[in-house]
Amino acid sequence: MEEYIEGAGGTSELALLLLKHVDVSLAGFMDDSQYLLSALGFLNRAQVRNGALRPALLAHGMMRTHTGVLAALGRSADPCQGFAREMLINYSLVLLPSFLCAEPMPRHAIQALKAGLLSALINISLNFTDAQVLQPLEYILKKILPAAMAHYSVLWRMVTMLSTLGAVVASRPFKASRMYPFWRVILEVAVDRLPVLTDYEAVRESMRACDNGPCSKIGGKSAFSRCSGCYSVYYCSAPCQKADWRLGRHREACATLHASRHTDLLRGRELSFMRALVHADYLAQRTEILCLQIGYLNQRPDVDIYLLFWYTEGKVDIKIYRVGVYPPTYDWGIDWAYWARRKRASGGRMELHLVVTTCWAGGTCARMIPRRCRDARVSEGLARIAALPMPRGGEDVVGDMYEPLVIALKEEDEGSIH
Ligand SMILES: [Zn+2]
Ligand SMILES: [Zn+2]
Prior knowledge:
This protein starts with a helix and ends in a 7-residue tail after the last helix. The strands form three sheets. Strands 5, 6, 7, 8 and 9 form a five-stranded mixed β-sheet that branches. Strands 1-2 form a two-stranded antiparallel sheet. The chain has helices at 2-8, 11-28, 34-49, 53-59, 62-74, 85-100, 107-114, 117-127, 131-148, 152-164, 166-170, 172-176, 180-202, 238-246, 250-263, 268-284, 286-299, 336-345, 377-386, 395-401, 403-411; strands at 207-209, 218-220, 225-226, 234-235, 305-310, 317-322, 350-358, 364-368, 371-372. The chain folds into two domains: 2-202, no CATH class; 269-418, no CATH class. With 418 residues, it is an alpha+beta fold. It holds the Pfam family zf-MYND. It comes from Mycena belliarum. Keywords: Metal-binding, Zinc, Zinc-finger. Residues 215-254 form the MYND-type domain. One of its GO terms (molecular function) is zinc ion binding.
């Protein structure tokens, strides 16, 4: 690879040459698709061996070119006249995830969607049955697209695109295609999240909570000042900021939070939409979540817990864990001591909710989006119900047995935010 880079005069030059080569072969592949095959084959190998090439390719418009390749190959009329078309699509689809999810997420996914990725993938779903096409396509439909839909701009773009593709999506051949079950999940997620998207855009001011634990006041964002050191905590007043700096030990965390801001790519509108999404999903599943918590706390009354929101395969999946403990094989670098301290300082008005999304190439990353309550009635109620003798049969029965208590608890929960 070093020789290729040297020959081209640099990484950026090589990336430009490769993309030019793909564009030219795409225009002429009626004559000889061998060229396209060699270009895609090279990209597949280069991608694995040279990480530096990926950003260079992306900077030179890889997503547009690559989506063009998929669109041309996926049509029902065969542009290659039988030559290696399945293999070409296989190469293109195998390459796609690491580019789609390259950082900063979700910029490249948006570029691909704008270039017509959805209709290209729908066509491929319609026109192919070969395993070497369907296997990498299934991975993208199952693991990559639904996970990307937790991002505001991807979701917005997907919803818009899907509405223009309505006729194809509703067609009988599409519904009969082998990939349809995966598309159905994508469509359901789009429909489910549409109200969250609409509400999010209608409400101008997001809500905040004072990060001085003993205060925890909730109100409109404009009523709060943000810490100018880390830009990640909010206070209702100067005394609250002072108290949290010393007593809440924000002093010790501020610099670390500031540093992580540069590596944390989820911010601004993407982050505030994720808060809205987590909040909507929390409210929709509140009964189940409360029962889950009651069941868990009954078995382990003295344990600090957190809720894990998985946004990696379409609809959210919510699980419960002990603070500081990850599900096996994950390490997201969460400062548990910091969060446990904040939770304790809030006197039952903060619940830890950890949100997991997909980052590059299908890997996961997590960030804490705590739930903030107006008072401690819910956490106290949870502990009270959990202390009652539990029926045999586990968490499933908790809901039936303590239904009135859980409903009462839900009513006390009004006005919580994420
Ligand atoms: Zn700070
Ligand atoms: Zn305050």
